[in-house]
Amino acid sequence: MSAAIGTIVVTVAASFAYSQIKEARRARHLSLLLSFQEKYHSPAARAFRHRLLSGEFGPPEEFDPSRLNVDDFHSFWQLHDQLEMLGVLVDRGLLDFDLVLACFHRSPPRVWAAVEPYILTRRTLASPLEGQNFERLVGRYRTSSALPAQYWSRSAVP
Prior knowledge:
By secondary structure, the chain is an all-alpha fold. The protein has 7 helices and no strands.
């Protein structure tokens, strides 16, 4: 009888501990996401992304941050680093991809398309690791069932 009661107590305690771990994970994801979103959606960051995606700095095959003024150069690398970090967080399981997709549903793939040739060139000139987490993140977008094939075939998304 005492063994059965002990088993029940351990099972209840384990179940409670598991629910607490899930809740802590959810809180961590929310905290990371809100922190990232605050920076990513700041007016200055939005303005730079709009300029980049509208082609103000040239087509993707001609994009070169070294030709940007100091503020734009900084904004580019901040954007790149943010998306690289987002890729790391998703890749390591510290942030659920579904949350990223829900909150940043079209931005990372569009930014990648605008800077991909530059990043691939940097891999040969600077570091073979340049932008790999960002690229993996975009790969997750491409294989997501939430984004149908016709999404990827559009030349521009309004």
